[in-house]
Each structure stands twice: as C-alpha cells, then as structure tokens.
C-alpha cells in the first residue's frame, strides 16, 4: 500500500525542519489545477529539491509525466527515496545535474522554473526550445517573500539586494519578451505564467 498522505506530510515536515524551500500550498494547488485544466501531460521542472512539487504534479492525474533536475546530491537522493515510496518511478524522471549542463531534446507542455533565482533568464533561454508551441513556462518566487516590492534600502543584506535585483531583471525580461506574454500572479510566493504570443 502506498500511503501518499503520510509521505507528503513527512516531506512537508522535513522541508520545514531542514529549510528546504518547497512550494507554498497556494502555489502548488494552482499548478495542479493548471495541469488538469490545460491537459498538461509532460512537465519539465528545474529544481526538484526533495521531489515535493514533482510528486504533487504527478499526482494531479495518471497521465502526467515529470522530468525534474536537481544539482544538490543530498536533496536529489531524498527525491529518489520519496518518488520510490510513492511508486512513481515510471512517471517521475529525476536528473542529478546542474540544469545548465542538461541538454534535452524532448518537448514539454509545461516548464516549471524553481531553482537558483538569479539564473532565471538563463534557464528560460536555455529551455524555451523544449516547450511545445502551446506550452507554458511557469516561474516561482517572483515576489521573493515580499522583498521584490520593497525599497532597496529596506532589504537587509547586500547579497539579498543583489538577488532581488536579478529577480527584477527577470520580471523586465518577461515584460519585454518579444515571443512570450506573461501573467504575473499574486499566488504563493508570486508566479509568472508565460505563453508564446500568437
Ligand atoms: N520545486 C521544489 C523546490 C525547489 S527549491 C518544490 O517546490 O518542492 C530549489 C532547488 O533548486 C534547490 O534544491 C537547489 O539545489 C536547486 N537548484 C538551484 N540551482 C540549480 C541548478 N542550476 N540546477 C539544478 N538544480 C538547481
Ligand atoms: Mg519556489
């Protein structure tokens, strides 16, 4: 018997305890609904962490297949364990590598970017060729705990200021993108939903 409820609860507890930044409830619920409503079958995720969002996306319905990339060994191994516990090995493909070094030829209906926030533009530009014509790229953490909306002097550290600047650059990149149209949603920690212009 697969105890999905118990395993998912255990993943949330682990993430909480070990400070693994998994998706917030509102954000993941939006993704699950998006998958079901838009008939998404193939998902590519950048940033698996311990497999939480990949697992919940795969559980949206039986036809979903997720490929997900993680560069941190410990988290990757946790993800492998969690996917096994839920018997989802056939539908979740875990890749242990830096996403910038992963070259895929397949096309996906949904690409979910949730990795190093300073690299969003690079991820977007690298993987947009793997997106189906009608596909969507969703990016997480565009509000970064509310800090993106703050004034620069209100951001406590230099590193954080640099990171917020990168997220703002990414927002401008999306707003001025010639090929994609983006909706910015105040859901979870801020989601960007980008689709090809017609
Ligand atoms: N999507 C997950 C959370 C991901 S947290 C969930 O909601 O359950 C972000 C993860 O991205 C971290 O585990 C980090 O190690 C990974 N990451 C950051 N930059 C990466 C890169 N360049 N390639 C692969 N993984 C990366
Ligand atoms: Mg996130």
Write the layout of secondary structure elements.
Elements: H1 4-18, H2 25-37, E1 42-46, H3 52-58, E2 65-70, H4 73-85, E3 92-96, E4 108-113, H5 120-127, E5 131-139, H6 158-175, E6 180-185, E7 191-196
Bound molecules: S-adenosyl-L-homocysteine and magnesium ion (MG).
Topology pattern, helix = H, strand = E: HHEHEHEEHEHEE
| Approximate helicity band | 25-40%
* CATH architectural designation: 3-Layer(aba) Sandwich
Number of DSSP strand runs = 7
Q: How would you name the CATH homologous superfamily?
A: Vaccinia Virus protein VP39
The largest sheet, given as strand count, sense and whether it forms a barrel, is:
7 strands, mixed
Q: Give the percentage of residues in beta strands.
A: 15-25%
What is the CATH domain class?
Alpha Beta
Low-confidence region ranges? none
- Neighbour order of strands in the largest sheet: 3-2-1-4-5-7-6
State the domain count: 1
Q: Gap between N and C termini, in Å?
A: 46 Å
Task: Estimate the mean pLDDT confidence.
Answer: 96
Please state the CA-atom Rg, rounded to the nearest Å: 16 Å
SS summary, helix count: 6
Q: What does the overall shape look like?
A: globular
The CATH topology label is Rossmann fold
Bound compounds: S-adenosyl-L-homocysteine, magnesium ion
**SS-based class:** alpha/beta
Descriptive overview:
With 198 residues, the chain is α/β, with parallel strands linked by helices. The protein has a single domain, classed as Vaccinia Virus protein VP39 (Rossmann fold). Helices cover 37% and strands 22% of the residues. It has six helices and seven strands; from the N terminus they run ααβαβαββαβαββ. It has helices spanning 4-18, 25-37, 52-58, 73-85, 120-127, 158-175, and strands at 42-46, 65-70, 92-96, 108-113, 131-139, 180-185, 191-196. The chain has a seven-stranded mixed β-sheet with strand order 3-2-1-4-5-7-6, with helices on both faces. It is globular. The mean pLDDT is 96. Bound molecules: S-adenosyl-L-homocysteine (SAH) and magnesium ion. S-adenosyl-L-homocysteine (SAH) binds next to α3 and β2.
